[in-house]
Every structure is written in structure tokens, then in C-alpha cells.
Design brief:
Layout lengths: L6 E3 L10 E2 L6 E5 L4 E7 L4 E14 L2 E18 L2 E8 L11 H5 L6 E8 L3 E6 L2 H10 L6 E5 L2 E4 L3 H9 L11 E5 L2
Parallel strand pairs: 1-11
Antiparallel strand pairs: 2-6, 3-4, 3-12, 4-5, 5-6, 6-7, 7-8, 8-9, 9-12, 10-11
């Protein structure tokens, strides 16, 4: 979860907290199969989740290889739409790590949302996929007048439709194909 997608949304899937659902099975410490990325999901208030993503990175420094951990913090919520779960994550600017940023800087950050489709969920495994940029571009081309968006760069699409429209896009049967190949997260024991 939360391997950054090249597609983000300016608005959440839903801004109605009545749509949020909470699944206890999501809570815990998860790892991607490459074991380089860990995801920690904790309960937050109002059927929300605190998400911590820890990526092990390697960087060349002259002739030496340096390993370090890149940690990101998100706030997320889950909705169910047409018997399918979707997870919406946005950077958690209330997290103490953001205190090093000044208020003016924080006010200039866009609260981008990253949307994931949960293909399956059980106590020990999550199958989850982010939006694939090329598939989304194809979908946008087909429905050009119906999907508000901006191309931020050749590698990033920003969906700009309001929350209700996001749900309508996701409920479109053809939109099921905008999500990439699922990643498997396994519960760390």
C-alpha cells in the first residue's frame, strides 16, 4: 500500500464519513514480497487509519553503497463500492515529523490522495493495486469530457474531479482496469 502511484487525486474518494468503513484485519505490520518495504497500519479516529511506510533505500556515495530508511506518514480510509474495497491515502501533515516544516510551507502543500483497490484481504495477506498511469490515460482518452484531470508531467496525472465524481468513476465497470497489477503484502509475524 502506498507505493506511490503516478496518478493522484486532488479530492478524496468520498468526503462523507458515513461512507468510511473499518476493517480490523488491515491493522498490523505488513511487508511487500521484496522485503524492502514495510507498511504499518494503526487505528486512528473516525474509522480512519494511520499509515507508516518504511522503504529501505540504497544510494551510491562515491565508491560506497549507503543504505537508509525513507519513512512516510499517511492518513487513510476505506470505502466499499460495488462489493469492492478502495483505500484512500493522503500525506499526514499532522504527524509530528511534519513539525519541521513551517506553517506557511504546510499551507502550500496540496493534500493529494492516492487511491488503491484492495483485491483481497485476510488476516495474513493483502492484495492491493494502485492506479496505473497508462491505463488511466487510456480511460481518460476514452471519456475525455467526463474525467477532469491535469497532466502534471509526463509521468504524473492529477485527477481534479470532486469526491462524488471520483466514486462515479470508480463505479464504472471499465474503470476496474485502471488499477495495475496487485502487490501482495504479508503480515509480519
Amino acid at each position: 500500500m502506498v507505493n506511490s502511484s503516478c496518478v493522484s487525486s486532488l479530492y478524496p474518494i468520498s468526503d462523507n464519513e458515513k461512507d468510511f468503513i473499518f476493517r480490523e484485519e488491515l491493522l498490523g505490520h505488513w511487508t511487500y514480497k521484496d522485503m524492502q518495504t514495510q507498511v504499518i497500519l494503526n487505528k486512528a479516529e473516525h474509522k480512519k487509519y494511520k499509515v507508516t511506510v518504511i522503504d529501505k533505500k540504497n544510494k551510491a556515495n562515491g565508491g560506497n553503497k549507503i543504505s537508509f530508511f525513507d519513512t512516510s506518514y499517511y492518513s487513510g480510509f476505506l470505502i466499499q463500492l460495488n462489493n469492492q474495497y478502495f483505500f484512500d491515502c493522503t500525506p499526514d501533515t499532522d504527524h509530528p515529523q511534519f513539525n519541521c516544516l513551517g506553517e506557511e510551507t504546510k499551507s502550500g502543500l496540496l493534500p493529494l490522495h492516492f487511491i488503491y483497490k484492495i483485491h483481497s484481504l485476510d488476516n495474513d495477506q493483502i492484495s492491493i493495486a494502485g492506479i496505473d498511469k497508462d491505463s488511466m490515460q487510456h480511460f481518460i482518452d476514452k471519456y475525455r469530457n467526463k474525467i477532469k484531470h491535469e497532466i502534471l508531467s509526463k509521468d504524473h496525472i492529477l485527477l481534479t474531479a470532486a469526491a462524488g465524481l471520483q466514486k462515479n468513476i470508480l463505479s464504472n465497470k471499465e474503470a476496474a482496469f485502471v488499477f495495475g497489477r496487485p502487490d501482495i503484502l504479508t503480515r509480519k509475524k
